[in-house]
């Protein structure tokens, strides 16, 4: 049954992660996932809250294994990180996302960039910068058409080398965003020293606003501070019109979530742009 809902996948994910034995099973299967063509990307629209138009997409990896079925990235990415498999997997994702973006850009020339999640292990790997440079040259995509999403938790314990690399990427023209913002307890004053232009507010804070006053106040403060420091803000996990209303009023720049679109296959995105 291919058309199972997302909830069904979650159910299997939980069963799997409960069992250490299954971690090894996943690891073994993951080793061959790239070669066996089991990994593919979905894309989720990012909406400009001012113009109400899609300006970009976030690439989200998917894995469908013949024995394990669909395994959520929330389950297999950490395993890929532990085993180092995230390096070839991340390279595959980066390349594929760039290729697909160039195809979409031909259909909709107003698209601005593709957002790609970069794992800390991948970012720290020796060849990251060279691989990225080789791929973008090969594909003919500009760095300014790529936004690298790095999680706040990781950025928090950045060493000298990582900051140097961030600056190099910035010089090349890449966009960079701090993903899952608000979950890492970092200080804005630290972050403001980093060459990053986008703050992506984690879904945990977008949930239940405006009803949940704590979340509302936190989101308000993040957006206000971000704006005053010159950051662009993205809110993820918007599911209801009430959330959009509030975020729009607060001056959040970009919205992402099921309210606009679920992550979709490349074919579906392509067709929706043609129509
Ligand atoms: P993330 O980067 O914070 O991605 C957002 C997650 O929230 C995605 O889950 C997305 O499908 C989901 N989401 C988006 N809008 C909504 C909404 O309105 N409601 C709800 N309930 N969920 C929403 P997904 O695709 O399962 O990915 C989970 C995490 O796995 C990602 O969190 C990211 O940390 C990681 N991940 C996914 N793809 C990649 C990838 O290509 N590379 C790396 N390194 N990590 C990835
Ligand atoms: Ca999931
Ligand atoms: Ca992300
Ligand atoms: Ca998140």
Given as residue ranges, the uncertain stretches (5+ residues, pLDDT < 50) are 1-6
Percent of residues in beta strands? 15-25%
How far is it from the N-terminal to the C-terminal residue, by CA? 28 Å
Mean pLDDT, as a whole number?
92
Classify the helix fraction into a percent range: 40-55%
Biggest beta sheet attributes: 8 strands, mixed, barrel
Structural class of the helices, strands and pairings? alpha/beta
Secondary-structure element order, as H and E? HHEEEHHEHHEHHEHEHHEHEEH
Q: Strand tally, please?
A: 10
Bound small molecules, deduplicated: ligand C2E, calcium ion
Number of helices: 13
Computed Rg: 18 Å
Major β-sheet strand ordering: 1-2-4-5-6-7-8-9
* Oligomer state of the chains in this structure: single chain
Tertiary shape: globular
């Amino acid at each position: 049954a291919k058309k199972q809902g997302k909830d069904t996948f979650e159910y299997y994910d939980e069963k799997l992660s409960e069992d250490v034995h299954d971690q090894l099973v996943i690891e073994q299967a993951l080793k061959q996932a790239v070669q066996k063509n089991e990994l593919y990307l979905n894309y989720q629209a990012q909406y400009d809250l001012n113009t109400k138009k899609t300006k970009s997409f976030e690439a989200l990896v998917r894995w469908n294994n013949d024995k394990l079925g669909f395994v959520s990235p929330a389950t297999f990415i950490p395993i890929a990180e532990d085993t180092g498999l995230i390096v070839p997997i991340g390279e595959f994702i980066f390349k594929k996302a760039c290729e697909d973006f160039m195809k979409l850009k031909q259909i909709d020339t107003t698209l601005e960039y593709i957002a790609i999640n970069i794992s800390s292990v991948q970012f720290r790997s020796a060849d990251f910068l060279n691989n990225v440079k080789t791929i973008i040259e090969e594909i003919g995509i500009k760095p300014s058409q790529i936004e690298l999403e790095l999680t706040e938790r990781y950025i928090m314990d950045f060493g000298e080398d990582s900051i140097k690399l961030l600056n190099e990427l910035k010089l090349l023209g890449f966009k960079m965003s701090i993903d899952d913002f608000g979950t890492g307890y970092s200080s804005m004053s630290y972050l403001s020293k980093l060459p990053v232009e986008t703050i992506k507010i984690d879904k945990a804070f977008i949930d239940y606003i405006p009803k949940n006053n704590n979340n509302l106040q936190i989101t308000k403060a993040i957006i206000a501070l971000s704006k005053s420091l010159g950051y662009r803000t993205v809110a993820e996990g918007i599911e209801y019109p009430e959330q959009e209303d509030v975020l729009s009023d607060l001056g959040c720049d970009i919205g992402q979530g099921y309210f606009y679109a679920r992550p979709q296959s490349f074919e579906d995105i392509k067709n929706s742009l043609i129509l």
